[in-house]
Amino acid sequence: MEGRKRIVGWGVLALWVIVIALAAPLAGKLGDVQRDRAVDYLPASADSTQVANIMEQMPGGGSTDLVLVYHRDGGLTAADRATAAREVRQVAAEHPLASPPRAVPSEDGTTLLYAVSSTEPGTDEVARDAFVHDVRATVSGEVGGPGALATDAGEVYNSLDGPLLYTTVAVVAILLIVIYRSPFLWLVPLAVAGVADFLSMAVTYALHQGFDISVSGQSTGVMTILVFGAGTDYALLLVSRYREELRRVPRPYDAMAAALRGCGPAVLASSGTVALGMLCLLAADMNSSRGMGPTAAVGVLCALIAMMTLLPALLVVLGRRVFWPLIPAYGSRPKAARRSLFAAMGSSAGRRPLAVLLTGAAALAALALGALNLPGALKQEDTFSSTPEAVAAMRTLAAAYPETGTQPVTVVAPTGRVPEALRTALATDGVAKAERGRSSDGWTEITVIAAHPPQSAAETATIEALRTALGDGVYVGGPSAEQLDMADTSARDRNIVVPLVIVVVLIVLVVLLRSLVAPLILIAAVVAVWGAALGIGGLVFEGLFGFGGTDPGLALLSFVFLVALGVDYGIFLMHRMREECLTGAEPGAAALTALRTTGGVIASAGLVLAATFAVLVNMPMVQLAELGFVIAVGVLLDTFLVRTYLVTSASVLLGRRVWWPGPLARKPVPTAGSGSEREPVRV
Fold first, then answer.
1. What is the average pLDDT across 522-530?
2. Spatial distance between the Cα atoms of 489 and 453, rounded to a whole number of angstroms
3. Contacts of 212 (CB under 8 A, 6+ apart)
4. CA distance 295 to 300
């Protein structure tokens, strides 16, 4: 019989080898479908998207717009101007341009600006990048503009994959070595997480091909973090229970079966809740957010499948020796531990639950006020934590040309309405110049130069005034308009997705816990955590990290992740608490027992998850750094403040009412074998 059971373990491993072989061709193609242009993040209905789509259909396709910047602090010399003119002529000779570049000197004589527009690359990103690099190799000045910024952004996103993966693996490995205190055991869940990440890449590529979901560098980066963070959490819970069962059961296969029966339902419920919460992002209009929903859900579910199948098979095949030097021998008992930290926390919450609850709630409310200090909307030039050449050029232009815009606003109008559109544009407050461009298929391009610096409040007002004055059927786009559309779409998405997430998660919790009050406590707790984490971000983003703005999607994405992941841990605690109540324990005692018995392993899981998201803080994209910081801080708040003190104290105060209107709210419901005869299910 034992031989057959070992064959089952080897059979699962063989099946996973086949899965990896089938996934390999798909996983390697994920980077090919990743898109990180601003317009790729926007919905099809946005004005900016309409402009980009129409421009791509014009002769030569979408244009790549650059700005060549020549600058000398003390003032440009005659030799500088001659060099600039010669280099610009060379660019014009080597590449087909929409019009001859014209020098625009700054009033202080320190800077020359040449606007360069070419349809040569079309919509091909590889050709665009080659064009930008060729121009940079030709000119001695700085090369900026939307095309250069897109190239720099693409290179930064492409450079994330390696460092993000390696840093995440290193962080998880260190934490697992500390937690397991074994030179070998940490390798097993880490390897399984790597397999899950590989599988999630293949599934995401298949979803893109089948359903055209949006794939961005942000979504794939977050997916990797989720796979390693959530996957390691599930591994910690399973291995902890497996270690206990090995002391009670002689054979590893039987011990693993008992461990899966014990913690499997809670893990399945929590991972399912996280996946459903992520899928609520499908209701978002923003392509990047809508694409992140299924991508994140795929990461969580792949981590779940791998940790509930591949990890058990590996542990069974390796046997007890994988725990060396702390091998759990059959019939042994763990060394008597000192009174745990969570037992002490639970005792303090149990002695003065009302004081603990009010103090904790006041602390979270005070921290949430920091959200009022969040910096304004993130500008394009502030997207990078480093300073690529395109950003340096934008800053040089902003300082040298404070009196006018240096980034065109693109208007597309039906050809028959162009004279009227030109007159309206020139009459709009804040417009310095407007001229007619290409025409095709009944549409004509109009290039508008604003009288104010790019993405300033005045330029934003000009874009909004243009859209109002030009009316329906005429679209206003360009880089600044794209940022405006992102902010507007993100605000709309928050109003729809946030309530949807709350309703979906609440329904799942009501079904799982068979109560209404307990789910409301958990929802209120994670919403409070989200507010406090955003507040801490508002206190440190600008002053400590030097971030020049906040990504428009930060509030929505951090809410979805913190609610889903926070409820994930709440399920483990409440699941154990409910099990204790089913044995006849009073809710107050059950809450303290649940905290004492689950606190250590869930705290370890929380530390791992927070550490993996904290990896994003070191990435060179500000939106990733902000998202990683808020989620990491939120997970830590949930682990060490909200779940340990606030949820526990609220449960003690409410007593049996915490299970209202279920049967546990009315009277004790001891099950057969309750009390000392039945060991409660542990996660």
1. 93
2. 23
3. none
4. 9
3-state secondary structure 493-528: HHHHHHHHHHHHHHHHHHHHHCCCHHHHHHHHHHHH
Query: Read out DSSP for 38-62?
Result: HHHHS-TTSHHHHHHHHHHTSTTSS
- Sort 217 into a burial class: Cβ within 10 Å, 0-12 / 13-18 / 19+: buried
User: What average pLDDT score do residues 369-379 get?
Assistant: 89
pLDDT band at 401 (very low <50, low <70, confident <90, very high): confident
Whether 405 has a pLDDT exceeding 70, the answer reads no
**What crossing angle do the helices spanning 479-513 and 554-582 adopt, rounded to 10°?**
10
Residue 397 is encoded by which pair of tokens?
A: 């232009």
Tokens of 422: 């030109």
Identity (one letter) of the amino acid at 406? T
Distance (Å) of CA 220 to CA 255, 294, 403, 501, 613: 36, 11, 41, 21, 13
3-state secondary structure of 254: helix
What does pTM read for this prediction?
A: 0.85
Residue 117 host element (H or E):
strand 111-118
* Torsion sign across C-alpha atoms 147, 212, 560, 266: negative
- Distant-in-sequence, close-in-space partners of 32: CB < 8 Å, separation ≥ 6: none
- Which tokens belong to 455? 């993405």
User: Any bridge partners for residue 440, and if so which?
Assistant: 443
Read off the DSSP letter of residue 417: G
What are 466-522's pLDDT values in tens digits? 999 999 999 999 888 988 998 899 999 999 999 999 999 999 889 888 889 989 999
Q: What is the rounded CA–CA span in Å between residue 254 and residue 466? A: 71
- Provide the 8-state DSSP code for 645: I
Q: What are phi and psi of 337, to 5 degrees?
A: -95, 150
Task: Report the C-alpha gap between 137 and 91 in whole angstroms.
Answer: 10
Q: Model confidence over 105-159: pLDDT tens digits? A: 998 999 999 989 887 787 677 888 899 999 999 999 999 888 888 888 878 777 7
